[in-house]
Amino acid sequence: MKKIDPGLKKILQDFSKSYRAKRRIVLEGYDFEDLRTALAELKDRSLDQNAELLDRFADRARAHGGIVLRARDGGEANAMVFKICRDHGVRTMVKSKSMVSEETGLNGFLAGHGIEARETDLGEWIVQLAAERPTHMVMPAIHLTRRDVAALFMARTGRPVPDDIPALVRIARAEIRKEIFAAQAGLTGANALIAENGVIMLVTNEGNGRLVTSIPPVHIVLASIEKVLPTVVDALTLLRLLPRNATGQTITSYVSFIAGPHRGPQYVILLDNHRSEMLADPRFREALRCVKCSACLNVCPVYQIIGGEEYSHIYMGGIGTLFTAWIHGLKASRDLAKVCLRCHRCEDYCATKIPIADLITALAGRIRDKGGAPLWKRFAFDGVMASPRLQRTAFKAARSARKIISKKDGFSRNLPARMKKYDRFRALPAPAAAAFSKLFKAEFGARRAAAKPAKGPVTIFGGCLVEHFYPEIGLAAGRVLSKLGYEVRIAPGMCCGFPPSNAGFEKAAGEAFAALVKKIKIAGPLITVCPTCTTMLAKRGAEIAGSEKAKDLAARVVPFSRFVAENEMDSLARLLTKERPALSATYHDSCHHKNLLKAERASRTLVEAATRSGIREMDEPDVCCGFAGTFSLDNPEISAELLADKLGAIERTGADVVAMDCPGCLLQIRGGYQRKGLAVRSAHTAELLDEAME
Predict the structure, then answer these.
(1) Is residue 502 one of the residues assigned to a domain?
(2) Average pLDDT per consecutive 10 residues, the chain (694 residues; last block may be shorter)
(3) What is the total count of domains within the chain?
(4) How far apart are the first and last CA of the chain?
(5) Is the pTM of this model over 0.85?
(6) Is residue 378 a part of any domain in this protein?
(7) Quick one: 224 and 312 in the same domain?
(8) Is 101 helix (H, G, I), strand (E, B) or coil?
(9) Domain hosting residue 507, numbered range
(10) 560-567 vs 685-692: helix axis angle to the nearest 10?
(11) Is the domain of 33 the same as that of 129?
(12) Strand, coil or helix: 270
């Protein structure tokens, strides 16, 4: 169970809001997409030439008088640093911030050999005083308050210390500078290794980086192999975006280009530590584009709830999970992979366009292949979800038990004891009395026989939640499309394969998707009312199957809101002329609907038309509600916290209804209000439109 500290949560959420505001300002006048596309392409080219560029960098660095060493793993890198210290009589080393040294466990290793490594980065120094480890890649002590820091400084100095920031900085400067001037060696990382001239680029916000590289007589650089770039111009391409995306600054306080030794010998240790294996993997090599800006952490809803102590092995968050799997092994990453929401929010902020959520899904597949998936997931996905027959049997049995497990309000009761932790924070829905496909045929079969519509056919795909729990959503979409003049048909009530795919059960996902493709017959657009189904049908399914029919299917898929907003607003306006009371509404951005499909603007347009009022925007409308499929089962305590935040944001708007486009979000939010005993209405966009057109 992940620990949730309310004080830490507030610190991280407040920081996230501040970061996004500062970042927005410094990116004004720039096209972020152009900047990050250029940086992603640069990193890809550099990775393609990695071995050649490393050789070139090493040759040029040696020409400047540097000594370049290659370390296969963390143990070898630590041994090299120790040998350098021993050869030069070093007993005390000072360090500028280096996540690579955290990766190798350098400080502890040196301490075991009688050498003291002292941090000089303010955040790292504070963390070292606290005998803790960094919880953020850019701001290592983000989890500590001013009072925490004042207490640490008081213990360090033995005198009272005020908790105002200027005083704390003055004390830190005085203490750290004494250590720098007394040290026999300094160690830094590198933000870039420039191949054309053997120069090291170092980007910092404190003067400690320059002092560590120039005051002690020995300078050691510990850098990972993916940091190498071809030219100075390429390094400036990185510099143009890195500070803006990392800290919301136009440029950091110090940018240093270091060519060779300053006072004494300079050693550059190039660390592989399984990165060459990652580079050779066509699926995961994209992660090596990472420039450690930590923007993904700064916007990650889970990180803001539990922080980096809980959400890390050494590296933090989603991108950290990927590095952990390769550097420290699949076992170390297994629990971290389950903590990712797969909400894709981070990907809109990533400086190099890394598909972090998709890579974690692929990682979950690797973990599953190594026997790391729990029994219940293997049964659910490899067994039930992969077989349409078993799906039908399971839901038929659940529907038969409806009277036992449900009351008239449609929520489950008398759940087994093991299910209580999932039911504690949100009531779970009971299966619908009848499946969507059955109700659809009863209602629309007669309409289709009665008259031929003026417009062509459209086919609705409901998905599992609509088929078995919320048929009213599919029926509402059907009525809206019928009133707009379309011949409405229905796709088979089968699973698209997204749930097993998102959990890393790619084989089961492929089987479920293939069964659907084999049976489905569509004419015209395929209208979806669930964003995750849309993702599977329009993207993942075609990638898995690769068949022409799957590609044709993908080309026809359109989310309900986008289809209506882009094609039928004039017709809708004519149909919504009936006087009706205005209804105030707020809108929750479902993760896939906004972050992958970019369809949230269409939905807002429809909600405004249906309610005859503007959207009352809630705080953080695009932060996940905490459902995220099996995430809420793997992490009920985090899911509950995300849901509580979402419900609070909705309530503060004072809106009559909260609209959304995802049945999963509806399950979470409606269930949350039911558990709280509040009658706050939640509805799918299609339901609001259907009501407005009556």
Answers:
(1) yes
(2) 85 96 96 97 98 98 98 98 98 96 97 97 96 96 95 93 92 95 97 98 94 97 98 97 96 94 95 98 97 97 96 96 96 95 96 97 92 83 82 80 72 68 82 92 74 81 95 97 94 92 91 91 92 95 86 94 96 83 92 96 96 93 95 94 97 96 97 89 96 89
(3) 3
(4) 48
(5) yes
(6) no
(7) no
(8) helix
(9) 436-692
(10) 50
(11) yes
(12) strand
